[in-house]
Structures are given as C-alpha cells and as structure tokens.
TrEMBL record:
Transmembrane portions of the chain: 584-604
Biological source species: Magallana gigas (Pacific oyster)
Segment forming the signal sequence: 1-20
Domain annotation Sushi: ranges: 465-526
Keywords noted in UniProt: Disulfide bond, Glycoprotein, Membrane, Repeat, Signal, Sushi, Transmembrane, Transmembrane helix
Lineage, broadest ranks: Eukaryota, Metazoa, Spiralia, Lophotrochozoa, Mollusca
The protein, known as: Sushi domain-containing protein
Amino acid sequence: MRTGLSFLLLWSTRLIGSDAMLIRSNPSYVSVWRPMTANSEHSRLTLRHDLNEDPAYVKVEGRTDTGFIFPAFGSSQQDDDTGTLYGGVVFVYNLTHIDIFVSHINNNNWKMNWTAIYTGDESKWSGPKYLNRRYESIAVQAKVWRSRDLPPPTWRNTTRVTNQGCVNEILMHSLNRYPDLIVVQIRKGHTLSQGQGLSSLGYITRKFYHFGGVLYGTNESHVQLWSPCDITGMLNFESLIAVADGWGEKDFELLIRDGFLTVTAWDLKEFRRNERVVIKHLKDVEADNFQIMANLASYNLINIQLHVLDGANRGFRFDGVGSVMNEAEPYGGLVYGYNDSMVAIWVPHLGNGIIEESKVAVFMLGKSWGSGFNKQMTNNVDIVIKVMDMLVPTCLLEVGSLKTRRFESSNHDKYNDSTLKFSVGDQIKLTCKTGLYSSEQNVTMACAHRNNGSWDRHLPEECYKLCPDIDPTTLNTEIMQNDNTTRPGRTVMYACSPRYRHVSGDLNRRCRKDGRWSGTAPVCEECKCPCSLVGSVPIKSNETEKLKQRIRELRSSLSVQKNMTAKARRQKVCASDPRPSARMLGIVFCVGVITVVISAIAYMDLSSFIFII
C-alpha cells in the first residue's frame, strides 16, 4: 500500500540494480465487489479511494451472476422520459471518491424500464443465446491508477471546451501505430469522467432529453473526438458529462457542459509482455455464436475494439461498450462482456436477422455527435481483442539493518518485506543520523526515466562516527605522520622524544568505524643511561672471562686505525684548488724548490773545484 506521508527510517539502504526494473502495473486502489440494484436504494454507490490526487485512469466494471464482466460508461446517454428499457453502469470521480450509478426512477413510474446491465432485446440484438439479456442486480468494482502506477505516456493533448461547445476534432498523435492504451478524460474543477468508444444512440430531437459523453477513435496517426451537439437548435441538456433524470437516485442531476478534454496515449512496446492479439471479422464471430475464446485470466490490460474497414472512419478503432442504452432507430454499437476464458459479443439486427444499415449498424456514428462530423453506419468491421501485461518502470531500494542514515520520502510502495518501490519522478532524501558524518552528509536522489527506471546517482557511502582528535601533546611522544582527519581508516604514527624509549602502547593507530582509535596510547620513559644500552645485562666481579670479553668488544668498537684518521686521509688525498691565490702559491713554491735544488748543486760543484785547487 502506498503512503502519502513523509517519514524517517533509521536503516541503511542499498540500491537494487543499476539497470531498468520493470514490474507489473497495478492500481493504487482496488475496491471489493459491491452489490448494486437498479431502481432501488442501492442504485448509487460512493467509494472512497482517498489517494488525494486526481487519478490518471479509472476502470469501473459490473459483474453479473453469470460471471461475465461489463465495462462502465463515463456518462449516461438515456433518461427515463422515453419509457424504453435501458441499462448500464455510469461513473464519475475526483481526488478522493468514485461515484457509481445504475438506472433509477425519476418521473416515469413504469418499473420495467430499468435494469443495471442490458444487452438488448432479442428481436433487435444478436448475441450468445444461452445468456440472459437483463440484469437488475449486479456487483461492481473500481480500480484507480495514479500517474506513477502507469508507464510514462507517449503523447498527451489538452483541449478546452466552452459552454455548450460542440467537439468534432481530429488530433495527430506521435505514436505511428495504434495506441496500446488511450484515456480520454473530461474535467470540470475536481470532477472527472472518461470518454468511450461507441454509443448506441445516434440522433436526438427531444428537447428535454438528458444525454452526454465524449466518443473517441484512433488509428496509427490520429485521434478523433466527438461530443453531443445541438444540431436542431432545440436541445437543452446535451453535455460532456450527464448523469440525470433516471440515474442513481430520484432528482439527482449532474450536467457538465464545459471543461477540459485531455487525451493521453501510450505505446507500450517497451512496457509490456505476454501480448496476444486476436482479430476476427464480424461474420466469423457470428458463425461462432458471438463468442471469442481467449484466455484472459492473467492479464492486467484487456481491450476489445471495433475496427472499421471502410467509409469515413476507415482504419479507426473504437472501444466496445458494456450495455445497451438505446434501441430507438438509428442505433448500433458493439456490446461485450468477458470472463476468464471468453468474450461474449452483442450486435444489433432487425427482426428478420438481417442488418439494414440505414437504420442500425454495428458501427454507428450518428449526426447528434460532433454535428455529423464523419458520421457513418457500417457492418464491415473486424473485432480486435488485445491483451497484455502492462509494465511500469520502477526504482527499488533495499532496507537493511545498519542504522546509519535517515530516509525521507513522500511517495513509495512496499515491494516486499525488505524492499521499497519508487516510481519515475519520485525523490528520496538520505541524511546522516545525528552523531554520524559523511563527505555527503545530505543526499537527494530521484528515480529517473532513463533506462526505463533507474536512480539518477549512486547510493552515497555509509555514515560513520569520527574518532576523537589526536592530542599533539601526548606525553614524551612526537607525531611522525597524521592524515589530518579522524575518519575511519585514517592512521597516525608516533615516535618517542629524544632520550626516551617506547615501553608500551601502540606507535601506529588507526581510526575504526566505531569511532575509536585502535590499540592504546603509546608510553615513553626517560632513559637513565644511553638508550642504546638499555637492557644490557651487568657483569659480576667474579666473571673474569666475561669482563675480558667485554673489554675486547669495547676496545674493538672504540679503537681507531691510523690510516682512518683525518690526518692520514689528508695526506693521501690531493685535491686541486682552482682559486688564483692557490695557483700563485703553487708557482712560488715550485720556483723556490727549483732554486734551492740548483743552488745546492752549484754549491757542491764549487766546493769540489776549490778543493782541487
């Protein structure tokens, strides 16, 4: 069940998949089957859907005691002044309620005129012979889809209709194929109704006749619209929505003659599965006793349409209807009901069983609709049954057990016990719980249309607790490395101060996810002797050999080799000096040495000479 209230979840969350998630389209509201009876206190039923928004699509159906289901109308096309038999289920709706009506006496006292569902007199309508034609008591059910329950529409158009306006319009849509689903909504204020494909009513001349509705048909490129029009200049009560004079309860009247028409069409080629299409010509349906066998039990979208094969509306398709409202000539229409295994069809005929198109026809568009725009009567038609599972793009969010973020959303559904479902356009806000932190403290995410439904960003990281700040004055230590943050996973490295040694605790500590530092604080103590000697074992006085060995080790470590002294290295290493003063000193020194040597030689030679003399 979808909730409209924003709330908080103290759970961690996980996105389910990055690709499209297509699930079966289901209405937000489905009523139980409720009893209704024509011309009784149960001829009007009000259901509360309480969705507090205008529905995108509403489906109301009536079920007979035979199990066949018949679609309802968005407007009545008959009142009780004619004195003729009619039936049908009519509904209107708003943002909180659905109002459902069946026929009820107003100012005609002939009780036999009213029934809830009517498939036509046997002398005027052909259909399965074993099924009843009149059902005074039925059960009804309503289903409501919001826009988020449906796939994104392919095309939409809104037209304003002024008071007593006459609609005869053709619109070009963008699908380039027959729509799989089309919804025509009539709106005045907060009152809405829906159009229908066909009407059994063709031409009205009576001044006080209450009738209304919007008819529509589609082909591969266009949508045609018709509303009741006063072509005689005498009508007073033709309307876009009419529920009056013979519907719901005595003296009830709802007439809406202006407002807005919104046409929405869907091409579901990306949003469907298990599609099945059956097309049969009217003659083939008649040969099969007006029954078309089809398995309809498992589908959520069922369309029964009439396909026109000639004339002004050739190629257009019109939805069938769920009851006969008129049998005064000219009349026509395709009435159908279905169960899990078949579709039953009723079409008009004359007393001799031969259809005369000038008076009645299966496809009948009379001149009271759209002032005769594309008016036509023909029996050259196919009946098209299309069923499928309609899918809707969805984003999923798994709800876990870790309490790290608060979750806020005003729109979501429960997909299963551990997963929430969001529709395209829905937004969520993820906020770190009080006392927890993240680089993305507050994050907003949206379910986007791309890929047929996916979140517009990745799920943010989990929130976490911060570790306490590192104390830079931890006794007798120095911080060698620090990431300058206290997030989980960050580390700090300590070292003991000079003349202190590490005796306990951890020099490397890491911030954990629980907001605490790993290990314990380091402890450094002052060294009483050189720190490198701390831990040496003392030598006793009677341990002579150990003492000698220790003296040898000390001598070895303290001895200095002569060739390793600074003086020895200076004597062995000659290095050039590029300074000018050094060059002059070298020259003077060399000249002096040479002079001394020559003088010594000369002196020795001179001494020898004197001695000889």
